[in-house]
Design brief:
This protein is of the alpha+beta class and about 130 residues long. It has a domain of about 80 residues: Beta Barrel (OB fold (Dihydrolipoamide Acetyltransferase, E2P)). The chain is built from three helices and five strands. A five-stranded antiparallel beta sheet has the order 3-2-1-4-5.
């Protein structure tokens, strides 16, 4: 029975950390292999304390150019400086242009890092409490 609990615990940890791992992976891939480009802001949206920017950019894949739209959660300061029709500096992955980010915006990594640190602190505190 103890092994079932351990396996369940590992599955839950993977599920919790998948988002943060993915956000950091995308950032690393864009830093290593991303291509700079300019995108035009299509729209902005505010939902409570969350801010979103939708932008359109052209991506080169070989000799072919494709147009992509991306809706991205952003920091408030990025939202405020992005007006409709304005050009933004982005990076995208040529092998998968769906992976793109606005240069200078770190919302995904900031949030996920805070989440991971919080969960790790909670786990350490729980472990210390249970083994005290």
């Amino acid at each position: 029975m103890y092994y079932v609990i351990r396996i369940a615990f590992v599955i839950v940890l993977i599920w919790i950390f998948w988002g943060p791992i993915q956000a950091w992976y995308v950032w690393i891939m864009l830093r290593r292999s991303g291509v700079p480009a300019w995108a035009n802001v299509i729209s902005r949206e505010q939902r409570g304390i969350r801010y979103f920017v939708t932008y359109r950019f052209e991506a080169m894949k070989g000799a072919r150019t494709t147009v992509h739209n991306k809706r991205l959660g952003v920091h408030k300061r990025t939202y405020q400086r992005a007006s409709e029709g304005q050009a933004l500096s982005i990076r995208y992955l040529p092998a998968n242009p769906k992976l793109s980010q606005i240069n200078g915006d770190t919302l995904n990594r900031d949030f996920t890092t805070l989440l991971v640190v919080g969960i790790l602190l909670w786990m350490v505190a729980t472990y210390a409490y249970l083994n005290h």
